[in-house]
Amino acid sequence: MVDKQLDIDSLFLVCRSSNGSSGTPISHYSQRFALQIRNIGKNMLQQFLSAIFPQTEYNSPQSSRQSIVRMQAYEEEYELKQMKDMAAARKRWEALVREEKVKVLTPREAGYALQLSNKPLLDVRPSTERKKAWVKGSTWIPIFEVDDSFDVVTLSRKTTNFMMGGWWSGVPTLSYDNQFLAKVEQKFLKDAELIVACQKGLRSLAACELLYNAGYRNLFWVQGGLEAAEEEDLVREGPEPFKLAGIGGLSEFLGWTDQQRIAAAKEGWGYRLVFSARLVGVFLVADGLFIGAQQLGRYLQDIRSH
Questions:
Q1: Across the strands, what pairs with 286?
Q2: How many CB atoms lie within 10 A of CB 96?
Q3: DSSP state of 171
Q4: Does the pTM exceed 0.85?
Q5: What tens digit of pLDDT does each residue of 25-74 get?
Q6: First and final CA of the chain: distance in angstroms?
Q7: Which candidate, 96, 124, 101, places its Cα nearest to that of 196?
Q8: Residues pairing with 145 in the sheet
Q9: Which has the higher per-residue pLDDT, 113 or 264?
């Protein structure tokens, strides 16, 4: 049986896991590269602090090791909790589909349903994805939206999101909209045949659970989300293809997502050279910042010694 109440912790987990990885699924090679970049970033931060504050604890090897161990322990604990919570949520959502409480549609089937039976499509993606590409005639009610508040709790979540990969994936800190159900109920009756879609298919499945528990019994879930759609499957509006609507951050800038590599294979070497040039530029800028930090550290040290 599906839980009568959707675990809000699972919802927050979905807003990180569904999109956004990166917001985009990345290959094993890309994951290794992202991990290497993160480690480089940690080392550069340590060296930066050591250069500016050469006489402080930042320059202590023991203190450095202790800080790294604490950070690694925190990340491992956080990722373990994520895996456990997501496993529990997936079981509930799989039960919805297995028991046919929610019907499954491919993106192409969803396109046929929109054209032939005029079923409404509910887009539950946040504005960062919606503004890039959307299905013509769809209704937009995000289950999560970008959190623009600056209270202590939100700032803590934003910091965690950034450190845990937001800088790489471009996925912003999202918050569950407590008015989501109320907004849906204003638009659609409980007996409406409703197609629910998101970018990858995870948040829309969480939305289906909420809607089912609220009394909606004619729900259709777009498996794989809009990212799985080919251009001919659905009538698209917006500046980007559906497949690129969920990517962002440094991974998008460098062209290091699976979606962009597939596009590069079609476009040829011109497309690849653009991102290769960007990668070289990033390393040159990082190198320049590090050298600048060293010079600043020496300058400050000279001032203190006189």
A1: none
A2: 18
A3: P
A4: no
A5: 334 444 454 455 555 555 555 554 455 455 544 445 555 555 555 655 65
A6: 74
A7: 124
A8: 175
A9: 113
Alpha-helical segments (H) within 142-220? 152-161, 167-169, 180-187, 203-213
DSSP β-ladder status, 236-237 and 139-140: unpaired
Residues in contact with 255: Cβ distance below 8 Å, sequence separation at least 6, in sequence order: 261, 264, 271, 272, 274, 275, 278
How large is the greatest C-alpha to C-alpha distance in the chain, in angstroms? Answer: 81
Active site residue 15: no
**Geometric angle at alpha carbon 176, from 173 and 181, rounded to 5°:** 155
Residues 6+ apart with CB under 8 A from 18: 198, 199, 200, 201, 202, 203
* CB-count burial class (<10 Å; 0-12, 13-18, 19+) for 120: middle
Position of tokens 């990858």? Answer: 200
Q: Is 136 helix (H, G, I), strand (E, B) or coil?
A: coil
Q: Are 170 and 248 in contact (CB under 8 A)?
A: yes
At residue 271, the pLDDT reads 61
Distance, CA of 196 to CA of 120 (rounded, Å):
9
- Token duo for residue 131: 């503004």
241, two tokens: 């293809």
Checking DSSP bridges between strand 144-146 and strand 174-176, what pairing results, if any? antiparallel
Amino acid at 45: L
**Whole-angstrom distance, CA of residue 57 vs CA of residue 45:** 14
Non-local (6+) Cβ contacts of 7 within 8 A are 85, 88, 89
Residue carrying the six token digits 């050469």: 54
The active-site residue out of 89, 198, 210, 247 is: 198
**CB neighbour list of residue 156: distance below 8 Å, 6 or more residues apart:** none
